[in-house]
Design brief:
About 20% of the residues lie in helices and about 25% in strands. It has about 170 residues and is of the alpha/beta class. The strands form three sheets. The chain has a five-stranded mixed beta sheet, covered by helices on one side. Strands 1-2 form a two-stranded antiparallel ribbon. The chain has a two-stranded antiparallel sheet with strand order 3-4.
Length: about 170
């Protein structure tokens, strides 16, 4: 997949993990160098956002996601922001886990590592049973996520879990 950023063209190094496939638990490190786990089956819907850089536009969109989730009474979601390495300054956001992919497991397993070794700008919803329920991989790193598509997918992911699997 071709990814554009300003005048550069980047490529995904691998195929992204597709909808319906089991997600993998991976470990990240936060700004205090503490390890935490995301992905896999944990009984919660997970919203995983990776980005090649953290800027005001991204932080604004994360805040907008929080507002939309609250307005629509969609709680109980694990939310995480993932960057490639500790060269990035991790934002401290209420109700968000922020971490870097210190062992490259997220980028490799989820197939979102770019040719410049950064992570693509992606949004992944993992259902309570650990399956990838929805993903959005932006072909323009400056573009925002399509929140009008994401919010209904989160609502369905939260409500569809039967204990037998859920692939949307």
């Amino acid at each position: 997949m071709q990814i554009n950023y300003k005048t550069s063209t980047l490529y995904l190094e691998d195929m992204p993990l597709d909808v319906g496939y089991a997600s993998e638990k991976v470990s990240l490190k936060n700004h205090k160098d503490e390890t935490f786990t995301i992905g896999g089956q944990n009984g919660f819907t997970q919203l995983l956002i990776s980005a090649p850089f953290v800027d005001e536009a991204l932080i604004s969109q994360l805040t907008e996601i929080d507002t939309l989730l609250a307005l629509n009474a969609l709680g109980g979601i694990t939310k995480a922001l993932i960057v490639a390495n500790n060269k990035h300054e991790l934002p401290i956001l209420e109700e968000w886990l922020s971490g870097y992919d210190y062992d490259e497991a997220y980028g490799d397993y989820y197939g979102v590592r770019l040719s410049n070794k950064e992570l693509a700008k992606t949004l992944v919803i993992v259902s309570k049973d650990g399956a990838v329920f929805y993903h959005e991989i932006l072909s323009d790193l400056n573009a925002p996520f399509s929140l009008e598509k994401v919010l209904p997918k989160i609502a369905v992911a939260i409500n569809c879990y039967t204990g037998k699997g859920c692939h949307g």
